[in-house]
Structures are given as structure tokens and as C-alpha cells.
Amino acid sequence: MYSVHCLEPISVPLVNKFYKQFSVRGRANKQDQCWVTKSNKIIAACRLQNKDDVLFLSTVFVDPEFRTQGVARYLLKSALDAQYSNIYTFAYRDLEPFYLGLGFERVSALPEHLSCCFANYVRQKRDIVAMCIYK
């Protein structure tokens, strides 16, 4: 079966290697919480970034070979359940039902530092919605 772990900062390069293998945008750094799902290897990863007094979920990716098996749900449920701060994310519109199922709500107001990022992504023509889990 699969196991989910929050990596120690020293292991962050493993997440970046996984992302690079699949040409995923975004790079983890040692200040991020990097969560992974492992089988015999990393098959999914996500980052929780500290953004002032909130967390920002980003760079959620599942190896295409393991998609549609509940891997992302298992990874995110484990990572989100371990948090005590509000968690924001920018979800692609077609994934909004998935994030709603995890407990996220669509939001119209964002903290200023996230609002700027959201506006930049929208200018890049990304079809995204701002969402939050309130803790």
C-alpha cells in the first residue's frame, strides 16, 4: 500500500527531483512542508508554504501512472489534517469539486500577499479559483 510522510528539510531535494522528472512547475525549499506519498518510490507530492499567518497549498502532483486511484486524496487528507492554520490554495476550475470534497471553500477575499499572486495567475490566463480551509 501507500504511505504518506512529511519530509525533513534535508530531504526536500527528493521532492524537487520528483517534480523535475515530470516537468512540474514550482520548486520546494527547506521552509516548505513537503508531503509525499510513497510506494517503493515517491508517487505524489505537495507543498505547504508558510505565508505570514496562513498556509498555502501548492504544487500538488501525482505520477500519471498512479492517477485515479485516490492517491491525491490520501496525500492531501493526511497533510491537511496535520495543520492548525487556515490553508489557502488556487485550484484549477475543473478540480474545484475535488477540493470542495476535501473541505475547501471558494473564497472571494484573500490576504493581500496571496491576492497579488492570484491576480498574476489570472493575468497568465490560468483558469483558477481561490479556496480556503478555515481552521
Radius of gyration: 14 Å
CATH architecture: 3-Layer(aba) Sandwich
Q: Note the total helix count.
A: 4
Distance between the termini: 30 Å
> Could you give me the name of the CATH homologous superfamily?
Gcn5-related N-acetyltransferase (GNAT)
Structural class computed from helices and strand pairing: alpha+beta
CATH level-1 class = Alpha Beta
What general outline do the C-alpha atoms trace? globular
Helix content: 25-40%
Number of separate structural domains: 1
Strand content: 25-35%
Number of strands: 7
Largest sheet: 7 strands, mixed
Low-confidence stretches: none
The largest beta-sheet arranges its strands as 1-2-3-4-5-7-6
- Give the helices and strands as they follow along the chain: EHEEEHEHEHE
Reported by name, the CATH topology is Aminopeptidase
The mean pLDDT is: 96
Organism: Pseudoalteromonas citrea
InterPro entries: Acyl_CoA_acyltransferase, GNAT_dom
GO molecular function, one term: acyltransferase activity, transferring groups other than amino-acyl groups
Protein name: N-acetyltransferase domain-containing protein
Would you kindly provide a written description of the structure presented here, covering whatever features stand out?
GO terms for molecular function: acyltransferase activity, transferring groups other than amino-acyl groups. This is N-acetyltransferase domain-containing protein. It holds the Pfam family Acetyltransf_7. With 135 residues, this protein is α+β, with helices and mostly antiparallel strands. It has a 7-stranded mixed β-sheet with strand order 1-2-3-4-5-7-6, with helices on both faces. It has helices spanning 12-21, 71-81, 96-101, 112-123; strands at residues 3-6, 33-38, 42-51, 54-62, 87-92, 105-106, 128-133. The relative contact order is 0.15. The model has no long low-confidence stretch (mean pLDDT 96). The protein starts with a strand and ends with a strand. It is globular, with a radius of gyration of 14 Å. It has a single domain (3-133), classed as Aminopeptidase, CATH 3.40.630.
